[in-house]
Amino acid sequence: MSKKILIIGGVAAGPKTACRVKRLLPDAEVTIIDQDSLISYGGCGIPYYVSGDVSDEKELRNTSFHLTRDESFFARAKGVTVSTRTRAVAVNRQEKKVLVEKLADGSREELAYDQLVLATGSSPNRLPIAGADLERVFTISDLHQAIAIKELIAKGQVGKAVIIGGGAIGIEMAEAFVDLWGLEAAILEFMPQLLPRLVDWEFAGMLEQHLQEKGVEVFTGEGATAIEGEDGRVRRVVTPQRTLEADLVVMAVGVRARSELAREGGLLVDPQGNIVVNDRLQTSDPNIYAAGDCIAVKNRLTGKAGIAPMGSLANKEGRIVADNLAGIPTRYQGWVGSFTLKAFERCIGATGLTLESALAEGFDAAAVTTAQSDRAHFFPTQAVIPLRMVFDRQNRQLLGVQGFGPMGDAVLARIDAAAALLQQGATIDDVSQVEMAYAPPFATALDALNATANVADNLASGRLRCVDNAVFLAWMDDFASRPDWVALDIRHPNEASVLVEKFGADKWLSIPYIEVRERFQELPTDKMMIIICDAGTRSSEIQIVLDSVGLDNNLVLGGGFNLIRRLGVSWLG
């Protein structure tokens, strides 16, 4: 007798589970039910559909060989039965049945199962503020919302858009509105920076600066308190600091697991509402599995579990569930938290923990920031990619890597390599020696990731002392009243001359890198010197030189001006 496998949820994890099961158990009776009419689409591609990079919403539902993933496709190509517009009402675990309701006519029936898979996904959060239910206040929860947004814009009914939430979706939507459609767009983020908890403030600051250069207004540390409208339609977003005109609002303030069905069925759910699973993705009922945005996923660095709403993870989890359904014991090891994001001409990405998060988790954490070439310095398309490496001072464990640079594969390549190393429990010494593919059009002979690990080694070993970027910028903001420090600019005099003229030769010292060994006697002994170059590499070498002659009153600015420029500080002009 063939096994009956019932899957609730038809976007990512559900279809992946179904298709894998049918390959492993061709005789299994596999059924997917979903309350939506559209299934198995690339939800992460929604902003790119709105932007026009993806011209037709069907492309998000099509296979790579141009067949649309609908009920007919699954039945004919995969041997999987799909019932759309069908809502799961209740799970009867004792009888192994699920009560479902047909949304078209309200009729109900019970579907039997031998094994059940919950792939119910997540629901977008909606702020509990006045006006949240006005017309044209959207959450990017499904493809229908994206289609409605694009239709409004295409009809010329939107001139100004406000995005509440400065996470990945909010940033991608802002780009979509501005880049293709030429709308005015503003991002409101309640936390002090964009991408909170995903990157450290310097990398969020570089991203914010680029967004502003491209015409996106960004307001951080500022939350929406009300949405105002006229005739039932949104017109304004109000914060404690300002009122923003709006023809359309996108509320992108995170998601929560759709776990009501599991909770009501008596399955174990954590305090945050995520379905608790073991490492084979079984719930507290061994005949019921769960995958995707609805489950609590273990972070491999902290050991803590929480929601991990990523399409990439949902597909991996779906395969693991299918293996276990077919009797292939497969364990899910969790995630380390990797992402990448396109923002106009820039790319930002990260894996693992930020410095702030690592310290909060109790690690003896430190971080270094570099500004590395993405390919050989002599190659015509060479560009600079700031990288940040977070690690534990005591055991030298790698904890995280962040990158920012031109749109392309340079940042992605380093983040992917770091993610793989993180999952193996690598140290900064492992990263220093990891073999990276090399050719001048793609990388430097000593790869940017290797070089950043070497800087981390120098810091961990006490061979490098750096000034915190926030401390340096605070010093610059209070320049005149800080007689206890000076800047030592070791770039070419032509580069340093503007700041020497602006701040004075007694405060902004200019001695070229190549002359420091000959002229160190000119340097002060009673003031803290901040050694500055473009990337920090020459500065760290000069620190060693000065230390060797007894001038250890110095700190290096990691990442140098390549980082500071990207933050858009006013004193650089």
UniProtKB/TrEMBL annotation:
Its cofactor is FAD. It comes from the Bacteria. GO terms for molecular function: oxidoreductase activity. Belongs to the class-III pyridine nucleotide-disulfide oxidoreductase family. PANTHER family: NAD(P)H SULFUR OXIDOREDUCTASE (COA-DEPENDENT), PYRIDINE NUCLEOTIDE-DISULFIDE OXIDOREDUCTASE DOMAIN-CONTAINING. Gene3D superfamilies: FAD/NAD(P)-binding domain (3.50.50.60), Rhodanese-like domain (3.40.250.10). InterPro entries: FAD-bd_OxRdtase, FAD/NAD-bd_sf, FAD/NAD-binding_dom, FAD/NAD-linked_Rdtase_dimer_sf, Pyr_nucl-diS_OxRdtase_dimer, Rhodanese-like_dom_sf. Keywords: FAD, Flavoprotein, Oxidoreductase, Redox-active center. The keyword Flavoprotein applies. Residues 348-446 form the Pyridine nucleotide-disulphide oxidoreductase dimerisation domain. Residues 4-298 form the FAD/NAD(P)-binding domain. This is FAD-dependent pyridine nucleotide-disulfide oxidoreductase. It holds the Pfam family Pyr_redox_dim.
